[in-house]
Amino acid sequence: MEQLYPQAATELQHRNPFELLIATVLSAQATDASVNKATPALFQRYPDAFALAQATPEEVEPYIKTIGLYRSKARNIVLLARRLVEQHGGEVPVDKAKLRALPGVGWKTATVVLGAAFGVPGIAVDTHLTRLAARLGLSAQKDPEKIGGDLERLFPKEKWVFVHHALILFGRYRCTARNPKCQDCPLYSDCLSKGAW
DNA sequence: ATCCCGAGGG
DNA sequence: CCCTCTGGAT
C-alpha cells in the first residue's frame, strides 16, 4: 500500500515556554529535526531570556549555524529575549496578541507556541493551509489570521489539534502546490480548482 | 536544479 | 502585493 504521508512529522522537543518559543521561531525555515539538534547546546549556554538577552547576535550565531537564516535569526532571538526581559519580566506571555507583537513572531508562530507551551488550542495557518483554504473556498482572503478563524469556526475546539495536523499533512503531501494528487481525492467534489492548478 | 514549513520590510 | 533570507528536502 502506498504510503500516504512519507515520514511522520517530527516535533520540537523542548521543556519550557522559553525554549518552545525560541525553538519555534528558529524552526521557521528549518526542519524540526535540525532545530532539535542545534538547540541543546544553545539552551545550555543560554538557559533563559535573561541569559540570551545579554548575548550579542555574533555570540549566538555559532550555536545555530546549521539552521537556515541563522544570521537574521541570531539577531531576532536576541532581540526577542531582550523584549521578553524588558516587557514581560523574562517570561513568555500567555497571550496571542502579546506574542504576536514580539519580533520574529508572526501569527502562525504565536498560535503554535500558545498550543505547545500552554495547551491553548488553535489552528496555526501555514502556507499549506492557506493553499488548501483557497482551493476549497473556505476562506476568501489569504490572511492567515482570517483563515485560522474560519477554520476554527468550522470545527469544535476539541477537534482543532487533530484537524490542524490532518490538514497540514494533507496539504503537504497530497494537495501540494504543484502536481497535487487529485486522483481519488476525497474532497474533489468540494474543490474549486479540480486539478486546474 | 528547484522549491520552500514564515516574518518583516518595501 | 512582492521580495528576501538560507539550508535542506525533493
CATH-defined topology of the largest domain: Endonuclease III, domain 1
Q: How helical, in percent, are the residues?
A: 40-55%
Determine the structural class based on helices, strands and strand pairing.
mainly alpha
The main sheet comes to:
none
Distance between the termini: 27 Å
Strand proportion: under 5%
Number of helices: 10
- Number of individual domains: 2
Helix-strand sequence:
HHHHHHHHHH
Mean pLDDT: 86
The CATH homologous superfamily of the largest domain is called Hypothetical protein, domain 2
Are there runs of 5+ residues with pLDDT below 50, and where? none
Quick one: how many beta strands?
0
In one word, what is the shape? Answer: elongated
Question: Which CATH class of the largest domain is shown?
Answer: Mainly Alpha
Write a brief structural summary.
The chain has 197 residues and is an all-alpha fold. The protein has helices spanning 17-26, 32-45, 49-53, 57-60, 70-88, 96-100, 107-118, 127-136, 144-154, 160-173.
Structure in words:
- By secondary structure, this protein is mainly α.
- The chain has two domains: 17-118, Orthogonal Bundle (Endonuclease III, domain 1), CATH 1.10.340.30; 127-190, Helix-hairpin-Helix base-excision DNA repair enzymes (C-terminal) (Endonuclease Iii, domain 2, Orthogonal Bundle), CATH 1.10.1670.
- Helices cover 53% and strands 0% of the residues.
- The protein contains ten helices and no strands.
- It has helices at residues 17-26, 32-45, 49-53, 57-60, 70-88, 96-100, 107-118, 127-136, 144-154, 160-173.
- Helix 1 (17-26) packs antiparallel against helix 7 (107-118).
- The mean pLDDT is 86.
- The protein binds a DNA duplex (10 and 10 nucleotides) through residues 25, 27-32, 34, 66-73, 76, 103-109, 126-128, 142, 144, 168, 172, 177-178.
